[in-house]
Amino acid sequence: MSKDHSETTEPQHAPDAFESHEMPSVIWSHPAFRLFVNSVVAVSTRAVDTVNAMSAEWCTPVSIDPVLLGVLVGHTRWTHALIGESSQVGLSLLAEDQATIAHDLGDSSGRSNDKLGANGPAWFSGPILGLPLIEGAAAHFECHVVAVHTVGDHDLIIGSPVWSATTTLAKPLVYHRGHYYQLPEPLRKPES
Prior knowledge:
Helix content: under 10%
Structural class: mainly beta
Shape: globular
Number of strands: 12
Order of helices and strands: EEEEEHEHEEEEEE
Largest sheet: 7 strands, antiparallel
Mean pLDDT: 85
Radius of gyration: 20 Å
Number of helices: 2
Distance between the termini: 32 Å
CATH superfamily of the domain at 39-172: Electron Transport, Fmn-binding Protein, Chain A
Strand order of the largest sheet: 3-2-6-9-10-5-4
């Protein structure tokens, strides 16, 4: 017997085990948004003679066929402007021992600080596009930007990788609740 969905029903309430909050104007003050677990990438580009990198936690594969990666970059970030000029983006998936690099790349703007200069992290130019990539990262990608979608105060930059490399022994750096973490040992898969 099917239920008539046109009936008015009482709204479902959150279980008592969860604390309910009204949605604030600044999402990060809402405890639920702090529960996401993210990897940390160095987002880099080269525009004419300028190289720059910033750290970001919102980066993920967005398609398998074709292979596409997505990274969210704030509209006011200098890296955003440089990616717009070059239509290329480098992604270095930072390794668990690179928390200081992640912090330093996110702590200042390349407009006033040469983050990849003599006092910055060691980096190399990617073999295909020449994009700056952070040495020692767990994985590297050089991408052509194939789409940009505005999402609130960020742009979702979609990149098509033309080159990638990985360090099979390195574990990625993890960001959760405003802190960096190392991945523990994997849990055993439940039996089917």
